[in-house]
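Hi everyone, sorry if this is the wrong subforum. Our group has a chain we'd like a structural model of before ordering constructs, and none of us has done structure prediction before. Sequence below.
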Amino acid sequence: MLRKILICSILILGTVSISAVNLVGKWKTTIAGQQGNMDLTIVIKAVVADTLTGSLQTPMGELPMSNSKVKGDVFSFDIVAGERKMHYECTAADEKITMKAPGRNGGEERVMIFNRVKE
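Answer:
Right subforum, don't worry. Here is the predicted structure as C-alpha cells:
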C-alpha cells in the first residue's frame, strides 16, 4: 500500500513540474502597425510566488509591468503608457506566450504570439 502511495505521489509531482513553464527570459514578436512592422519584447526578470517582475519593450521605450498575477502557465499584468493603462492576459506553453491585448479605442482585442528568445 505504501508503495502505491509513493508511486502516485511521484507521478502527481512529476506532472505538476512538467506543466510549469519557466517564464523568466525574453519573448519577442513582430506586429503590423500603422507605421509598418513593430517589434515587441516581453522581458520577465523574476517570478516570485504569484507575481512577476518585468517590462514590455516597444519602439517607443521600455514600459514596466505592474499589478502582475501568475497562476501556473497563466499570467496577467498592466502597462501604463502616457495616460493610458492597459491590461494584458497571457498564457505560456511550448516556448510561446499568447497575449491578449486590448483593442484601440474600445475596438476588438488583439492576440499576439511571442516566441522565447534563445540566449
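For your construct planning: The CA atoms of residues 5 and 42 lie 41 Å apart. Helices lie at 2-19.
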